[in-house]
Amino acid sequence: MSERPVGPADLTVTLANAKAERVKRVAALAGRSARSRAGVLLVEGPQSVREAVRHAAPRVRDVYLSDEAAARHGDIVSEALAAGLYVHLGTVEVLAAMSGDAQGVVAVVDSTGTSLDDVLAAGPRLVAVLSNVRDPGNAGTAIRVADAAGADAVVLAGDSVDPTNPKVVRASAGSLFHVPVARAPLADAVTALQRAGLTVLAADGSGDDVLGEDGAADPASLAGPTAWVFGNEAWGLTPEELSLADAVVRIPIYGSAESLNLGTAAAVCLYASAAAQRA
Q1: Which residues form a coiled coil (predicted)?
Q2: 10, pLDDT greater than 80
Q3: Is the pTM for the entire model greater than 0.85?
């Protein structure tokens, strides 16, 4: 690896061959097997790379920008260099070969696993659990919502999407670097959260409790430590999954819409808890 430049003015285009091995290795990180072997994730786009540099700098191996993107996003270059990170400029063609969705800004970041034990050791008061959420855009959006609502962690359960999927990273808009994300079987996660003193609420249209009304989902009850479980985008939560929760809660639908999408439902539920906990 070459010596780090001392400032933005010293950066020059050093990557000009879109078929170079380094470029191919970065592009290959779009695949799960390559990420797993290397123990890294691919971060695409200025917003996500900026948040990685700001909040996870010790994990950032390399930052790549096209010369045009470096001119537009000087803050990323300056902060990365100030953090002592390796910053590389490439041609527009090189960055496009690394990722066609990155707007000329890419980072390679160590993928550090967060365990359920790590989550519980921090004494969480608000946790989002995603069960069998397979669409990377939905998972990333839910992580972003959880971060915005001040949740302490997100747990991906069952056959949920790999959180290092570049589409998850991009949809989280950097929140993946703000909030811990763990993986665990749903039953194990629910049991551990309950033992840690959290009330586990399953969000589902079949619920007897209605969000905001007296019962398990009224503001007073939501003031305590709470974990919300959200199900698959297509079929929600199965009867077996629902039986694990302390209560099943439905969001009232006052209009004619059949239901809410995952991100919206997560926002409604998590913000209800966040508001109650801060009241």
Answers
A1: none
A2: no
A3: yes
